[in-house]
Every structure is written in structure tokens, then in C-alpha cells.
């Protein structure tokens, strides 16, 4: 058509080259096919909405054949210009047509209710397009409206798609050619700048071509650009920036989305500003963090500033973030009175369940049948409507998919309006004890009452003394509810019991004693006991009730009478002598509760009841006796005797004195009221907490600040409460109260001064990469800094930190953060290659191990999110206050673990992680062995001895399967071995070896009389070991022969092993038993002095005789006065042994007696060593007859020995633990023979011949002569008692050599079998001064030589 018009206008004249080229271009524009013209297969199968709209077609210029080949329905031709006023294409921009009406639904957030305009489109989206008024934000009805005409830039593809749904032909675009436009109204434009010259200049500079034309009756100016996409967008953005004035848009968003809009370190908001050119300001949220998390109705206003183009682009970007984060919402409905809750929920929550059905929605309605904050409204006349008010802390919550939550909220608000018009209230008075039987656990459920009557009952709280209950419901159903409540109350029979008549002689009066007893029995849960025993309910009178009667309620009068009789017995069992009241100022009550309760109960058997707040000043003491500590405690019902009463009074008297002594001499308690402005109270409370924690006073001052912030009043306490929100109540010892008054006034003076300086602000550079370190996990570190310095810390977008507060504190905080920055600048990042299968072990359960490393080294450790450690790592990563938990790097490989932090900490964390990784790798080897279940017991061993030994030898972890009752013994079970490769291989080989042996094992059982078991086993298992070894079995005889356990009545001996070994062992055991049955027992008298000769050193002589004659010898214990020795064995063997012992008994020994000075007894005998030498060398024994040896003098106990470090022991070794470290003290003495009191002890020497006795006597006398000479005693303490073995040497060779060469007596502490040899015990050397010194040097040389050899 364009070419035809050109031809008509030329009137046949010759065309220039320019005209011909123009015609060519116009002809090309008439048909400009693109890739978009090709029909998508998906569109053929599922055609879009616009493609199925029928439009008339003009086929006038087409042939019949062409008409038959084309679709009949095609869009009619239209202008190629984009209709920028179309509300369908640009629903949120420009001055379009009137929006279509939508269902009235509450907005997803925003405290204000929607206006009429926003009610028509409260849900915000219609068929995917915003259906709100022009310029309104899709976020909320509170959004400020941008100037009309601000358009969202539309791309060519968007234009084509939009026009396909409208009448007219589709615009064709050449490949690479992009068209976009914006529409502006004159009011937005700078009238001082001419438009056309500006466009001409712009077109010369840009690769895009921008034209303008007037659109619509509003004289809006459309700027349309064509050319490369990037250039077109830049040109249109430049026009909006240069030709339009700046504008601001206040965009309300949920407070919970604030962090996501900002992003970590501000990266998200910076990116939006850079791409759109708009300035975005996100204010600080005043909503608490925990409140943000569960309530999306709280909003903040995001301010967007810039040209219309930039503002709209930024708004769309923020809208995307909000939409992604608020597809699910949490809402609190705070304007609903709690009296409406049961009606909204419906009987048994039927109403809520109906709303939730088939929706992704959850509605929580609090249970309400007792008022706490204030009673339900009262009405003065029948025509007056009750004024129901919401509760500050009880709210209906809705959570779920946003649209469903909006609809549920609108539905609930509509129901609330209906309930306000329908509900009426009536108050009726019922006896207080009957309330519990109307509604509650002991009465009818609120749901059943509502279902039956259509009404609800609201009861008063326990702390209120009113008897009125409120029935709420529709006016026509109210009487039904009243009647039903009266019926429920009347069903209970009530009986009274007046305890006062039992306490007419009470010291504190019947009323006081009755109330004290009631309080005590409440503490001992008497109500529950009566209910369990009789099915009756016991009600004690409240403190505010002037009556002290106990009330018993029951539906069965007989049970009520029985309960009353039992209560009378309990009263009589608690006479006035069993209770005592102690008047104590309530200020001390918390301290007594904490410090005295257990003391009085354990020491005196007295239970102490401290009054609750507002009850009384009297502390109740009840004597319970030892039964008071028993569990469960039984309340006594027996009248006490006179003796019991006297013991009660004594115990109460002592407990009272103890209690008052703890408090002191009745210190004066004072109360003071101090004016504290509300704005300083939180800060003052923290200051008070810190001060009192540091001082640790016995009776800290009680300080109560203002009233609760939720508007409710505190329950009155004995200590009182502030009378206003700007007041602090101080109560405590008068001197402490005066001190705290001064401290608070000083604090307020400083706080007022600092408040005037709080506007001071300082800022400084702080790299954003360190923000995470400064903020800490969940903001913990920056919160700590704010509290520590009492300043506000803000992280700005330009890599700066702003600190605001009093100048001194702000500067101090700045210096502190700069110091942290220097520390953070020394940051290092390590990427560790770790196999993903080990990530879980390194992270630990719920991130415990990785959190430990992060806290220990102050670093961040990031594991790949898609690894098995994802859940654990999510709990380990720290979060900033500007974004979600820090994710893993986008390019982080699955085998990479990133460690980032201060260089030193990161290096240590890296080393520890790699060590843990290497350990996990080294111990990741495993093997599985399948064995028959019947072999598990043998592999494990008795009490796990075999498997424990194998674990110790190989170092492997060996896990056996659990034992299964009635399991098939031939069934197989798996043994799992874990550890290093070497350990696993060793354990596996050993187990397989044992299993193979067990597979070839045979079992045999022998029934042997238990009386033979001991002799069969032999001393320390010697006999059975000999039998097994001789049969070819192992040294560990218990692996082959298994005796019954001790205490068992079984007599069966089990034998396991190879067939040959089992047969030989069984034969040997049977032969042994047969021999035992043939044995005989005989006895012979042998003088007691010769028993020691028969026993020998450590029983050696006795064992030799038993082996020599093949008999068992039983010798009486020393001191038993018995001389008979039993012989057991074969008859001929017993006869031979008896003959030998008879010869020994008849043999007469030669003897001599030496009177030994008692004080030299131990020195000469060398603690028994001399006796052993005489017996070994001369066959001479020494005894003392009936005389008792003197007590042994401990080394260092002599008064002549110097004391070191205040002790009488040898000197302490403070040198390092080495062979040369020692302590040496030598004490000269005039002569050991000069001491003592002259008393002696006989040494009776006896031996087989006079010659041997004479030689022994000569040796003793020589030792006596040496000990009597002037001598010295040296004490040599080594650094380690283990060195003593080097002094003694093999077989005593070293010490004997030293004794012979020096002539000294040397005693080394005996460390044999764990006796002696403790740290600090000295080697005692007795002899001449020179000999002692020589012996010391020789001892040290032995130690050095032995230590060098190891």
C-alpha cells in the first residue's frame, strides 16, 4: 500500500535514486517476515488465548486459490504503532481505561485497610496482568501513584505478542531491528527544553532512531525508538532522564523482605540501582526480627527516586523479589476480640477446617474461655450493643499461599462484622467452686457447649475473686446457654469442711493456721490425691475469700461424704504444734526459697512453704520428719502422740532459728520510688544486670522498672510495683537502696547528657567483604558491639560504616571496628579438595564439628550445598542482617571446601580439616566376614575378652551383630571390620583363621563332680594348662576347656578343639578324676616352727614337695595353733610323703639366742633381708618367740632429719625428670648403738647343725657391731622410682656389689607388685660418712648406665 501511494503521488514523473531506494524500503516493510512468524508446535497443540479469537478477514485482493489455502480467520490490518494507552498491555502504567472490578479481598500486608479504589483489585493480578488503577503498584493499595504516562518499556516481541491479541495485522520486524517506546505527559516534562532539537542531537549520537508523535486526547507524547536493542533502550532512558523531572515513589513491602531486597552486603540493591539508574532507600525496620519472621502484615516503605523510566524499572525489580518471597505469607489478625474466637473456629474447629479444605492454608485460632487481660464487655440496657475489644497478645494467625490467605482474611473479617451485630452478653453469678464444672477439664468442653447451645461461656481467672461468668451468643440463643450452664453447675453436690474448729487453740489463731494448712496441702497436691481416691474435687478458698472453708464437689453424695471424712483425719494429723509461721519480709522470700529449703528438709525434717507474690509475709514451716524426703510422699492421716508433738516442736524451733540466722539480725528493708523515663529503662536494666552480676551481693536489691510494654499491668507482688511506666521501684536493705538511688541518678544524668550528643555521627571506610565477619552469625557480633558501646552501627552501600551515638562512645566504637578491620585484612582463602563422601564426617551431626572449627578459628567454612552435608552446612553458615544464610559459591565444585578468614586462623583451620580428612581416609577401609552364628560366642570370648584382645592387637574396629533370640545357630551373620588398611587386613586374617579353626572344631561335654573342678584346674590354672598343652592344645587352656561359671550349679565341662586334642584332653581329665577318686587323705603333726621350712620362700618348698611326691599338702595358717598337716593323693604317694615329714619332724635342730637391742632390730635385719640370707646361705631360721617386733620407723620420721617444704618426707624433686636428677641429704649420727631405751628382743637362731647356727650367729654379731659404730644415714631420692630397678640390678647383683664395696646398708623401696616405690620415696643408705658418699655415687652411676641402655 505504501508503494501504491508513492506511485500516485509522483504522477508519472521520473524518480530519483533516493526515491527508488525509499520505495524499495517501503515495499520491504509491507512484508517483513521474522522467525516469530513460524508457528510453534506447542502453540498448535495448546493455542494461546489470543490465537483463538475470531476476526473478520478481508480477502478482496487475494485469488480464490490463495483464499482456499490460507486460514479463514486472520487479524485485520492495523496501524503498526503501539497503543501505549492500552490498559491490557500496560496495566500498571499510564492513564489507561478504568480497571475491571475484582472481588473485594484484604491485601496481603499493610496495617491499613484498603481504600475503595484498591478494594476493586485487592488481589492485584488478573489473568497474569496487574488490574489495579493506573500507576498503582501491584504490591499494596498503599503505594504512591506515579505520574500518569510512565510506561514500562515494551520490546518488539512484546509488541508483537500484544498485537496478536488485538485486531489488525501483526507488525513485522526485520532481524536485528528492535522497536520500543515510552509515553510521557506534558506535566512530567521540562518545558524549558525544546524537544525536537534535543531529538535531532540524540539521533546523531545514537545508533537508534527516536521519533515522537502525539497520542490520545490527553496530548501524551510517545517517543518511539528503533534500531539495535541496547541502543534503543539507552536512548529512551536518556530521554526520560533529560526531559523529565525527578520523581519519588514510596513502595510498601513486607518487612520480612527487607533483607532480601538489600542482599548480602547490599549487593542486590546496588545491582538494581546500577541497572535502572534509580536511587533506592530501604529504611531500617522497627519491627523485631522474630516478629518479621512470622508476620507479613508488617511493612516498610521503600523509597525509589529518579526519572520515570528508572523508577518504574526499579519498582518492577523489587516487585519480582517480593513476589518470589511472599508466595507464602504469614498474617496476624490483631483486631479480632478474643470473645469471637470460638464462633470463628466453630464447634470442634469445623469453621476453620472448612476454610482450610482444599487450600494450602493453615489458620490458628487461640482457645479462649477464661479472660485474663480484662473481662468481657458489660451492657447497661437491652438495646445497648456490647463493645468487644481485641486482646493485645491474642491474635488469629493465617499462613499459607498468598491468595488463599487473602481470601481467608477477608472471610474472617466479614464474619467478625457479622458477630459484632449479632452477639449479645449476659452475666450470671455462680458459686466460685462450680465454675470448673461448667467449662473446662472437669466440665463440658467449650466446643460441645457451643455446638449444643450456640453460645460460649467466659470464666474469670483464678486471681480474680468475682463469681460472675459471662455467656455470649446470639440474642435468641442466649437463654439456652444460660440454662445449660445452670444445669451443669447444679449436677455437682457440694460439702463444706471448716478446719477452724479443729484449731481453736492455735498460736496464730484458727484462721491463720487454717490458711497455712491449706497452702501446705496445696503444695503437697492433696487435690489430686482426693480426686484419685474418691473421684471428688477439693477446692481450697482463694486468698481473697474471707471464708476458710474447704469445698468438696462430687456427683455422688456417698463419695463426697467419704472424702470429707478423710479430710477431717488429715486435719487432725496436723495440729498447731506441727506448723509454725515465721514472719519474714517478702524481700527475703526468693533467697530463702533458694538457700534454705533443702537444708531445713534434710537436717530437721521440716518443709518450708514460701508465700507466692501477694499472698502473705509469713513463711510456713511444717514438720514432716524423715518421711518428708521419701518419694512419693504420703500425707499423714493419724493423730500424733504427745511424744510426736514434742519432737515436732523441737524440730520447728531449730528450723526457725536456722532460718532467722541466715537472714541476720532483722536488717531494715526499705522501699524507694525513682523517676526513670521510659526511654532509658531498657538501657538501665542492662546496666543493673551487669552491676549486680559483678557485685554478687547476698541480698541484691530488687529493682522493677515501669510497666510491661504490652500494656498489661503486672500482678501485684509483696514487693510492690511501679505506679507508672516512668518509675522504678527499689526494694532491699536500706543501705543498698540508698546506694542504688545514687547510682541510678548518676546513670540518668550521664544518659541525659549522652542523649543530647546522640546525633553525633562518624563514618569511615570498611570493606564490604568483611561485613559478614563484623555482623557475625545471625547478627550476634554487631548486636554485641551496639550494646557494648551503646551506639547505632549502619553499613552503608558505598563500603562505609556509620556510627551514631554519644561522641566518646561513637569514637571508641570506631577505633574498635578499625582495629577489627586491620585484623580482617589479613584474610586468606583456601580451597581444599575433599571427596564428597567424607563431607558428612567433617561437618558433624547438625554441623557441630564445622561450627566448632568456625568458632575456634573465627573463619568461614563452606561446603558444597548439593553434597550430603547440605543440611548440616546450612546451620553452620553465618547470616548477615542484610540477606539470607550465606550460600556456597556458584562455581564451587562438589569436591571443594572453602576456608576463609584471618590468615592465621584460616591456616590452622585448613590444617585441622586436612588432618581430619586424612584420618577419615585412613580409617575408611572396611571388610565384612560372614560367619555362622554358632561361632560368635567363641570369637567374642568370655565377657568379650577374645574380641577385646583382637581389637587391641590390630587396632581395628570390629562390630559384631546383635544377638537374636531363637536364631538358627547355623544361619550366618556378618562381622564388620573398620579402620586402616593394615588393621583391617590383620583383623580379617585373624578372624578368618579362627573361623576356619572353629569350622573344624568338635565339641564334647564331660559331667565331672564339682568337687574335682578346683584340683583339676590347679593353682592358677597350672594343672589344666599342663593337660591341654600335653594334648597339643594352646597355652590358653580356656580356649579348649570351659568350666561352669562361679555360682552355677552345673557340673558340665565343655571341651572344644580339633578332634585329636579333644580326645586326648577328655581322656586326661577322666584319668585325673579317676585318680582323684582313688586318692586318700592323711595327716601328720609337724611342729609349727618347722612349717615355714616346709613352705619356703613364696611357697617354693611346698610346691617342690608336691611335685616330688605327687600329693597335695595343706599346711595350717600361721597363728592358727594347729600343727597337723594334711596329705592328699594316691595311697603309696601319701605314705612316702608322710615318711619324709615324720623324719623332718623328728629331726632336732641346733639353736642359739641373741638379745638384739630393739632400736637396732630393723636396721640390722634390713627389713627381713638378713633373715632371708641366713635361711638361704646357712639353712638357719630366726624367730622371736612370743615377743613382738618393734614398729618400723618410717624414713624421714626421725626428729633429726630436716624437713623439706613443711613435710617430714624426703626433699621434693623440682628438676626435670632425668637420670641425673636427684636429691641427697646425709645426716651424721654419733652412733646408732647409743640410742634406744635399753630394751631388747630375742633372735632365736635354729638350724640343722651347730656349725651352721654358729656361722649365722657370727654374721648377726658382725652386723650388730657395724650398726653400733658411729655412722651416718643418707636419703637419696631419684626423679623417677622406676630407676630403682637399675640400682638393684639383675638378681640384686648391683646392690650387693655396692654393699660389699662400701660396707653400707642400703635399703631400696620395694616396688614389687605395685607396693612402694611411690614418687618421692628415698633410698636409705646407712654407714660411715665416706661409705655413704661412695655408695651414693655408685647408685647414681648404676642409674645413669641403666637409663642409657633403656
Automatic annotation (TrEMBL):
<feature type="region of interest" description="Disordered">
    <location>
        <begin position="1"/>
        <end position="172"/>
    </location>
</feature>
<dbReference type="InterPro" id="IPR054548">
    <property type="entry name" value="SCP160-like_KH"/>
</dbReference>
<feature type="compositionally biased region" description="Basic and acidic residues">
    <location>
        <begin position="66"/>
        <end position="76"/>
    </location>
</feature>
<dbReference type="InterPro" id="IPR036612">
    <property type="entry name" value="KH_dom_type_1_sf"/>
</dbReference>
<feature type="domain" description="K Homology">
    <location>
        <begin position="1148"/>
        <end position="1265"/>
    </location>
</feature>
<protein>
    <recommendedName>
        <fullName>K Homology domain-containing protein</fullName>
    </recommendedName>
</protein>
<feature type="domain" description="K Homology">
    <location>
        <begin position="1000"/>
        <end position="1074"/>
    </location>
</feature>
<feature type="domain" description="K Homology">
    <location>
        <begin position="1270"/>
        <end position="1344"/>
    </location>
</feature>
<feature type="compositionally biased region" description="Low complexity">
    <location>
        <begin position="864"/>
        <end position="882"/>
    </location>
</feature>
<keyword id="KW-0175">Coiled coil</keyword>
<feature type="region of interest" description="Disordered">
    <location>
        <begin position="1181"/>
        <end position="1214"/>
    </location>
</feature>
<dbReference type="GO" id="GO:0003729">
    <property type="term" value="F:mRNA binding"/>
</dbReference>
<feature type="domain" description="K Homology">
    <location>
        <begin position="923"/>
        <end position="996"/>
    </location>
</feature>
<feature type="compositionally biased region" description="Polar residues">
    <location>
        <begin position="1"/>
        <end position="19"/>
    </location>
</feature>
<feature type="compositionally biased region" description="Polar residues">
    <location>
        <begin position="714"/>
        <end position="726"/>
    </location>
</feature>
<dbReference type="Pfam" id="PF22952">
    <property type="entry name" value="KH_11"/>
</dbReference>
<feature type="domain" description="K Homology">
    <location>
        <begin position="1078"/>
        <end position="1146"/>
    </location>
</feature>
<feature type="domain" description="K Homology">
    <location>
        <begin position="245"/>
        <end position="323"/>
    </location>
</feature>
<feature type="domain" description="K Homology">
    <location>
        <begin position="327"/>
        <end position="417"/>
    </location>
</feature>
<dbReference type="GO" id="GO:0005737">
    <property type="term" value="C:cytoplasm"/>
</dbReference>
<dbReference type="InterPro" id="IPR004087">
    <property type="entry name" value="KH_dom"/>
</dbReference>
<dbReference type="Pfam" id="PF00013">
    <property type="entry name" value="KH_1"/>
</dbReference>
<feature type="domain" description="K Homology">
    <location>
        <begin position="826"/>
        <end position="918"/>
    </location>
</feature>
<feature type="compositionally biased region" description="Low complexity">
    <location>
        <begin position="154"/>
        <end position="165"/>
    </location>
</feature>
<feature type="domain" description="K Homology">
    <location>
        <begin position="422"/>
        <end position="490"/>
    </location>
</feature>
<keyword id="KW-0694">RNA-binding</keyword>
<feature type="domain" description="K Homology">
    <location>
        <begin position="758"/>
        <end position="822"/>
    </location>
</feature>
<dbReference type="InterPro" id="IPR004088">
    <property type="entry name" value="KH_dom_type_1"/>
</dbReference>
<feature type="compositionally biased region" description="Low complexity">
    <location>
        <begin position="98"/>
        <end position="114"/>
    </location>
</feature>
<feature type="coiled-coil region">
    <location>
        <begin position="398"/>
        <end position="429"/>
    </location>
</feature>
<keyword id="KW-0677">Repeat</keyword>
<feature type="region of interest" description="Disordered">
    <location>
        <begin position="707"/>
        <end position="728"/>
    </location>
</feature>
<feature type="region of interest" description="Disordered">
    <location>
        <begin position="863"/>
        <end position="905"/>
    </location>
</feature>
